[in-house]
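Hi C.,

You asked whether I'd gotten around to modeling the 181-residue construct. I have! Everything is below, sequence then structure, no commentary in between.
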Amino acid sequence: LNILCDGGWLPEEQLAELKDSIRRKLLPRSIAKGIGKDLEIQYRYSRSPKQIMHWIKYVTKASFRDITWDEPLANALYGFHNGCFAGTWDGSPKWKLTGTDKKFNALLKVREGIHPVSGKPIKWNKEPIPWALVEAQNPVDIGSGYYLLPPIRPPPSGRRQPTNLIELPDGDYRKHTNTVR
């Protein structure tokens, strides 16, 4: 059971009392002694919006450790996120994700289907590209599995001719038609 709540840092003594209170309410002592286990309660506190978002994503995702127990249920839970809340919030926001991060702004554009540099619509290709080819181009990670590749080199300007081929003058003995001599 994972619970996220608004709060603050708790001193060790107050935290121990709170953990004992939660244990007594969720699992009576008689049952805990009967099964030989007690509830493990972990407490973490952070002010970092990125850490809070990570916890929200972790808490709301379905965990299924033993797929052999119920394979159809495990497949149904794959990628599922669930969340619920109690009460309403009437106060000002406690924190928010800002769009000041360069990677975050680029990722927002990609999710809208717009190239983060050129601003043109992205044409998605369903065929996977081997990671070795992507890695060889020194990609820039913009998050969520998306990478920004360097611009493709434009073709050389003008017509390029190999330097070892020259036009022979008309009277040259080496110049002849393709007929057999």
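If it helps when you're writing up: The beta strands are 140-143, 146-148.

Thanks,
B.
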